[in-house]
């Protein structure tokens, strides 16, 4: 498989301060798809001279919708592997080859990053965020039946079968749990792999607040029981 068949999907909303550096850090080793979720800052102008695929939502729909747009595009482009990669610089491009190797050798349909498989990675997670993520892990387990170590890690690598089967309806942050529910529903083969996450002042500012965790839980309950 050549790198032409590997697509990195980067959802972006008002990431003009960092999006260019995030893309440059990937070194053009893969096909890059940026899904601009109706940014109102200079995100688009930061990307105009870069050799990437640029998709844009006319209105803000949320990260889940941006990922689904990216996955649909990669599937239509006949991509064999898709990578979910955050725009804020938290993820390490050097992890991508390790994840692809695990995906292909085990074999698996999707590999999800975890900050809680190695002690050195766990210690880098701010204490309050660690508590929220561990709580969310229990909620995820109860709702999906999949008991993972990291509830909302945005770094994922998947094959073409997963691209076809995953169809997200949760537009916003509850999509992370919906992905797990669909993995189980579609009997996709999943594993976790340790990943290094960098917490900058910018990424902490952009990250999920503890109050928004309740909004995510509400979305999940509505999705599971009231639709």
Would you mind describing this structure in some detail?
The structure is a single chain. Strand 1 (6-12), helix 1 and strand 2 form a beta-alpha-beta unit. Helix 6 packs parallel to helix 10 (210-226). Helices cover 44% and strands 15% of the residues. With 227 residues, it is an alpha/beta fold. It has helices at residues 19-26, 43-47, 63-76, 95-105, 119-122, 127-144, 160-165, 175-185, 201-206, 210-226, and strands at residues 6-12, 31-36, 53-56, 81-84, 110-114, 156-159, 190-194. Mean pLDDT is 88; it is low at 218-227.
Q: What is the N-to-C order of secondary-structure elements (H for helix, E for strand)?
A: EHEHEHEHEHHEHHEHH
CA-to-CA gap between the ends? 41 Å
The percent of residues in helical segments reads 40-55%
Counting DSSP E segments of at least 2 residues, the number of strands comes to 7
Shape: globular
Mean pLDDT: 88
Gist of the model:
The protein is α/β, with parallel strands linked by helices. The chain is built from ten helices and seven strands. Helix 6 (127-144) packs parallel to helix 10.
Layout of helices and strands:
Blueprint: E1 6-12, H1 19-26, E2 31-36, H2 43-47, E3 53-56, H3 63-76, E4 81-84, H4 95-105, E5 110-114, H5 119-122, H6 127-144, E6 156-159, H7 160-165, H8 175-185, E7 190-194, H9 201-206, H10 210-226
Helix pairs in contact: 6-10
Question: Keyphrases for this structure?
Answer:
disordered C terminus; alpha/beta; 227 residues; 44% helix; 10 helices
């Amino acid at each position: 498989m050549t790198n032409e068949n590997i697509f990195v999907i980067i959802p972006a909303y008002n990431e003009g301060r960092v999006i260019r550096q995030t893309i440059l850090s990937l070194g053009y080793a893969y096909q890059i798809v940026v899904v601009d979720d109706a940014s109102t800052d200079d995100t688009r102008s930061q990307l105009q001279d870069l050799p990437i695929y640029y998709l844009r939502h006319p209105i803000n729909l949320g990260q889940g919708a941006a990922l689904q747009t990216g996955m649909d595009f990669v599937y239509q482009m006949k991509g064999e592997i898709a990578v979910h990669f955050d725009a804020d610089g938290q993820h390490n491009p050097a992890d991508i080859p390790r994840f692809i190797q695990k995906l292909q050798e085990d074999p698996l349909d999707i590999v999800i990053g975890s900050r809680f498989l190695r002690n050195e990675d766990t210690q880098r997670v701010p204490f309050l965020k660690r508590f929220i993520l561990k709580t969310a892990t229990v909620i995820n387990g109860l709702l999906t039946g999949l008991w993972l170590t990291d509830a909302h890690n945005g770094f994922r690598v998947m094959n073409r079968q997963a691209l076809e089967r995953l169809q997200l309806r949760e537009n916003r942050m509850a999509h992370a749990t919906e992905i797990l529910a669909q993995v189980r529903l579609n009997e996709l083969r999943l594993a976790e792999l340790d990943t290094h996450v960098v917490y900058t002042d910018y990424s902490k500012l952009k990250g999920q607040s503890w109050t928004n965790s309740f909004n995510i839980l509400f979305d999940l309950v509505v999705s599971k029981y009231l639709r």
